[in-house]
Amino acid sequence: MATIKIKDLSFKPFINEDELQPLIKKVANQINKEYAGKSPLFLFVKLASYEGTESKGTVNELIGLNESLEGRDVIIVEDIVDTGNTLEKLYQIILDKNPKSLKIATLLYKPEAYKKDFNIDFVAKEIPNNFVVGYGLDYDGFGRNLSSIYVLNQ
Asked: CATH code at 27?
């Protein structure tokens, strides 16, 4: 993996695709074990709080929830948890819909940046508080399609 340029920034390789697959399987196995015999509802709701490489601190809901969550075991699936601002808003929206249980699963977690009190239940990988792109993560809409994760070259 070589250094790449997205818009005005340079990113270097951080986690390659081959490293990501076992991380995802680890979380899947944890969830399968904990929810054996149950049918949890997995939510991939799109919320945004970033502008460029900085969290704006406000959350813009892009796609809402369209089904009843009442009495359901719900797992929020996140690509990355950093400050927790986006997750806090989503968490409250879901709690207001009276689920039986609510847990959070994330591919990447930045404990140095996290500022909230609720638990992140399933974490594939903890990473430093650096800006990353690829594997669904973007920089102003670019880089999301990369099959590996790259970190801002500082």
From this structure: 3.40.50.2020
Is 56 within a domain? no
Residue 85 lies in a domain: yes
Domain assignment present for residue 111? The answer is: yes
pLDDT at 62: 39
Task: State residue 55's pLDDT score.
Answer: 57
Q: Indicate the Cα dihedral angle 142, 115, 102, 20, nearest 10°.
A: 40
Average pLDDT score, the chain? 89
H or E stretch at 26: helix 17-34
Average pLDDT over residues 35-61: 70
Bigger pLDDT: 85 vs 142: 142
Instruction: Tell me the two tokens of residue 124.
Output: 């594939």
Catalytic residues: 82
Long-range contacts of 18-26 (CB under 8 A, 24+ apart): 20/107, 20/135, 20/148, 20/149, 23/107, 23/124, 23/125, 24/107, 24/124, 26/124
The domain of 102 spans 16-31+38-49+69-130
